[in-house]
Amino acid sequence: MLVGISAAVVVGGAVVTPQAFAATVPGFGRFGFFGSRNNAGAGTGTGGAAADNGSCTDVQLVFARGTGEPQGLGIVGRPLAQALGAELPGRTVSSFAVVYAAASNQRSAGPGATNMSQHIASVAAACPQTQFVIGGYSQGASVTDIAMGIRGAGTAGEAIPADLAGRVSAVVVFGNPLGLQRRTIAGSSAVFGPKAKEFCNNGDPVCGGGNNFAAHLAYPRNGTVQQGAEFAAGLIEGN
Fold first, then answer.
1. Does 204 qualify as catalytic in the annotation?
2. CA 177 from centre of chain
3. Hey, is 31 helix, strand or coil?
4. What are the domain boundaries of the chain?
5. HSE of 212 in the Cβ direction (CA atoms, 13 Å)?
6. Which residues pair with 198 in a beta bridge?
7. CA distance 171 to 30
8. Buried b (16+ CB within 10 A) or exposed e, 140-177
9. CATH code for 21-235?
């Protein structure tokens, strides 16, 4: 299991293109997913102030990409990292892309949660002042659910240690499959629910049982990423 902080810099302005990938997702059939031509890997981004690669930052976004996307922050995580940095001028803001397969059978969500949880534990130990914003898109939202200890959210994985829950200032997810069970983070986690924001577009089959897959792909361009960044920034201690 890979745990740690890569030195790659989050790249903005990615051009998103469709991938010829047919994924079988339990409960809602076969769909194509987007990948990215400009693949920004796990790494350090900057907020209002620059952060040296590998250094402790005031805030770190830990984000899990969606099914079928190449390793990195993904089509939702990249703009979220940029928006969060812009919302926190004067703070150093880094990002880490959860290392997991993002496989079409959804069974990689548990191992992804383990990577997310172990990474947070590692950085929290080395950087006692760092606050975390966690989240994910599509299967990456399931990764986040499992890391928060929500039962029945997917395959087995390690949860964030209870004594570190307070270091997680905000949770932001997009297209969360938990919604297919008519469940929310707010109703499933007394610890993380009060600081969670969930976005599910109308018609999204992944979180809302709709039949418009275009709705599942609309998060990077419909304003919800900016709303998520504003929500998370508002919960950062001292902001």
1. yes
2. 13
3. strand
4. 21-235
5. 8
6. 173
7. 28
8. bbbbbbbbbbbeebbbebbbbeeebbebbbbbbbbbbb
9. 3.40.50.1820
Tokens 């998060």 locate to 219
Computed on alpha carbons and rounded to an integer, the radius of gyration of the chain in Å comes to 16
Report the alpha-carbon distance of residue 115 to residue 29 in Å, rounded: 28
Sign of CA dihedral 3, 15, 172, 168: positive
Lookup: tokens for 115:
């990577």
Q: Are strands 16-24 and 8-9 parallel, antiparallel or unpaired?
A: unpaired
216 is catalytic: yes
Backbone angles phi, psi at 143, to 5 degrees: -55, -45
Residue of 36, 104, 189, 204 marked catalytic:
204
The question of whether 119 is a catalytic residue gets the answer no
> pLDDT averaged over the chain?
80
Cα atoms found within 13 Å of the Cα of residue 179, Cβ hemisphere only: 25
Per residue in 156-209, pLDDT (tens digit) is: 889 999 999 999 999 999 999 999 999 999 999 999 999 999 999 999 999 998
pTM: 0.80
Give the Cβ contact number of residue 34 at 10 Å. Answer: 18
Looking at 36, 188, 189, 216, which residue is catalytic?
216
> The tokens of 152 are what?
């029945």
Which member of 36, 94, 138, 188 is catalytic? 138
